[in-house]
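Bench log, entry 3. Co-assembly request; chain sequences pasted below exactly as received.
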Amino acid sequence: MKQDDRSRRIRSMIIDALEGGGRGHVGAALSLVEIVRVLYDSVLRVRPSEPRWPERDRCILSKGHGCLALYALLADKGFFPVAELKRQCKAGALLGGHPEAHIPGVEASTGALGHGLPIGVGLALAARLDRRQSRVFVIVGDGELGEGSVWESLLAAAKHRLSNLTVIVDANGMQSYGLVKDVLDLDPLPAKLEAFGCAVREVDGHDVSALEAILANVPRDASRPTVVVARTVKGRGVDFIENDASWHHKAQFTKEMAARMRQSLEQTP
Amino acid sequence: MRAAAIEMVHELARRNPKVVFIGSDLGSGVLDAMKKEMPERFFMEGVSEANIIGMAAGLAMDGYIPYINTIATFLTRRCFEQVAVDLCLHRLKVRLIASGGGVVYAPLGPTHMAAEDMAILRALPNMTIVAPADAGEMRRAMEASLDVAGPLYIRVAKGNDPVVTRAEHGFTLGRAIRLRAPGRVLFVSTGVMSSRALVAADLLAAAGVSCGVLHVHTIKPLDREGIVAESKSCELLVTLEEHTLMGGLGSAVAEMLADEGVARPLLRLGLPDRFMSDYGSQDNVLERAGLAPPAIKERVLARLG
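Structure output for the full assembly:
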């Protein structure tokens, strides 16, 4: 699936943030771009001018290390000034290397993995108790699925028939050390999730139209949580970074790296 | 004491529509009356502490006040990161009712005892820790719990513990209670050790050593002023706790005295730095640890010289 101008623009904002902050998780942010873009462009009912609007949909980026993609979308939507992106991780900045709940538009502080889905279960239960129409979306990584807490929460979500909860797996097939299938194999992932009581859909996580079609129609099932396994490419959009584990995180991100990435971004289909 | 805490959850839930109860996999029939009266606010979630803490955090983010009950050590060691990140970092109104604080579960061995629960939770910003002395004080603590900002850890003892506090003592978070006026010695104690402190004080009085008891039901925040003032004219300040000497009440008092620049002869009595496979009863273990009233008396006399 080719990337369009909007996806390129978001990736460009991520590169600006990496360059400005001088560090960051690269691959995870790039694989998430279309997922967060579709959520914030056409799915989530949120108000940038009123981030705590009670009736809003809740979205938690449980794989918090992908935060630069989330920050780019939140800035683009006006939750905070775009200029904040270039200060990320600097002393006293609004934005750090993992999302925190004090940032406008961020629901929960994440980064330690395996926390977002349990919180999402609680938010979904709260919406039901309140008889609110709010929906809850939690984005997890496939590497993150190694955390047992995720599976505890899937049991709970199924038990409580949380149809207002949608889990999106950014299944880029890689984690910090290397391939998920080598480090801690999840296959067959959709079957496992189905067996845990979820309505499961698979999608090309870079196909904007396909993501829109699936996410515009959740819940898939009135009595079960939905899980969307979004097959993605780590580092997507910058050819020399795609599927390269060494680009998981850069503690010293240089201007040269940014220039190379920008050049590649324009040329990568 | 646990019954008092659990019954109070139902009572608080009647008063406040935001109160919910979450249990892990508790004994059959727990809070049946609440489950019957308000089933939508009663959750029994199985052996899944990490999920339970996060789920409570999510509920609290939208204004609910979850009261969680399970065994103390599974609320502290097992899901420490969830408590730290989900509850403390977000400063959420979640209440942890921790059954079997200290060595209550002595016969079940070291996997079930919570000898270091207060130490590890004290290290977390925004956490409040209370250890009531008896069932009456537990009810008063639970009354106060609705208004406590941020997460609250409520250490529960064995049950049928001697009642040493009275209604007129009240319960003000962070304010220690004078159970006996200070003498040559002052015991600063927490939880059910306050009842042992009173017995030890009687034994010391019989031996000619006057001894007061200051009951510190709130370990964090510590009543710094109260402890400093109450111990002002004492020859010896003795901390007493059913907890390892590393990081509990005794540590908190020692740190506080050092920070305040206040010099007090201090004897810290608590559990030894080892896992306890002693079995027997809570009292047996306390006795072996030198925390039964006669041993407390002897240790104080030895220190006084």
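The CA atoms of residues 24 and 250 of chain A lie 6 Å apart. The mean pLDDT of chain A is 96.
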